[in-house]
Amino acid sequence: MNARANLQPVKWVLFALATMVLVQWNSSAHAVDIKQITSPGGIKALLVEDYTVPLIAVSYSFKGGSTQDMPGREGTAKLLTNTLDEGAGSIESQAFQIRLQDNGMTYKFSAGFDEFTGGIKTLRDDREDGFELLRLMLNEPRFDVDPVERMKASRLRGLQGQETNPQSLSSKAYREMIFAGHPYSRPTEGTIESMQAIGPSDLRNFVERIFARDNLVVGIVGAISEKESGEMLDKVFGGLPEKSKLKKVPEITIKTGEDKHVEFATPQTNIRIALPGIKRDDDEFFAGYLVNYVLGGGSFSSRLYDEVREKRGLAYGVYSYLGTYDHAGLVGAGSATRADRAKQTVDVILAQIARMAKDGPTAEELEKAKKYIKGSYAITNLDTSGKIASVLVAIQDADLGIDYIDRRAEYIESVTLEDAKRISAKLFGGKPSVITVGQTVK
Fold first, then answer.
1. Which of 55, 184, 201, 335 has the lowest tally of Cβ within 10 angstroms?
2. For residue 122, what are the domain limits?
């Protein structure tokens, strides 16, 4: 992710005060009033108007992240997050950076497997210039050779460090095993060879293929009216091509029942475990989400934490998660421990997965999970304008419906113990794949 804050001292104080007020406002709010709007040019977005503070946040997403990197150019989407602000239109890199700084806005770009996302926050009085700078970055990035090479050099240093990082090595082995032959198996950060090969034309090609109006969702929050939002949408995004040129990405069911060890001289062994999961649009998503919380998603309150750390002291941390991608779903678990404790740690995690498959959660565990997941949502996701804007984008990406925030608690509460036991058997009943990176104990 690339995120930069360009704030003059006075504007920084205004931003800080605005954030403080917005946090207080959202913490006491019981609902978010979402409007679905369409610009005069036909661009759709979700809008939450609020004039409590003079701040506007805009988040957006283009379908197509690192899966759209060309073969041999892995890392293009990630490098793009560092180069979009290195000059745009007729303005070269240094002058563009100065103009961004003078405007006093924050902005970010991020690339995952399936999306390229971004966002800005600007004070209402600075919105016109802020929106123009965003328009330039998305529509007319320069990709001059010198700044591109400078950003590549920074990423190459990171990639060189990953070659001796056990967590990076375990992520690579994990990805290549469970997503074998699929675009998800490729390194999102790229490799040293692929990063060296990327040039300005590759970045330009990615933008031309991915940044398009049919591929776009937008969330807007703050001191901006529906009319002003429509004008902004047409100004910033209206000049993009109508149609994207996405490469087709196939569906994949992850591989299971395989074990792999990567020998590496490190004090700790990294452990990764995987099973097929469900995607976000699955009818049983919330049942799976709750069950995973009980197993290892609930951190200090989870079964894995209790069995691995509290009872046996095998590792400092242990976790499980639902991975929901556009073309695959998985259940993952992992930990890191001393090499001589790795086998026991794996055995304990696998035993808890098998126990969950056989019995599911208890009624008490399910109720505790429901209470926490319902109660923490607003604090975690609705406490700033930027987070709300990101939620508006996520709602559209997953086609959850404009009433999702209001109905989320209802969806969670409707999960029965029978539902939870059924999804437990479905998610955890197979034979997991296990990947370890570390020293073999002799």
1. 201
2. 2-237
* Statement to judge: residues 286 and 411 lie in one domain: yes
Contact 85, 138 (CB under 8 A): no
**Cβ partners under 8 Å of residue 430, min gap 6:** 256, 257, 275, 276
283 and 231 belong to one structural domain: no
Count: domains in the chain: 2
Q: Is residue 112 part of a domain?
A: yes
- The residue from 183, 204, 237 where one domain ends is 237
Q: 355-368 pLDDT, tens per residue?
A: 999 999 999 999 99
What are the pLDDT digits (tens) for 186-225? 999 999 999 999 999 999 999 999 999 999 999 999 999 9
Is residue 61 within 8 A of residue 213, CB to CB? The reply is no
CATH number at residue 410: 3.30.830.10
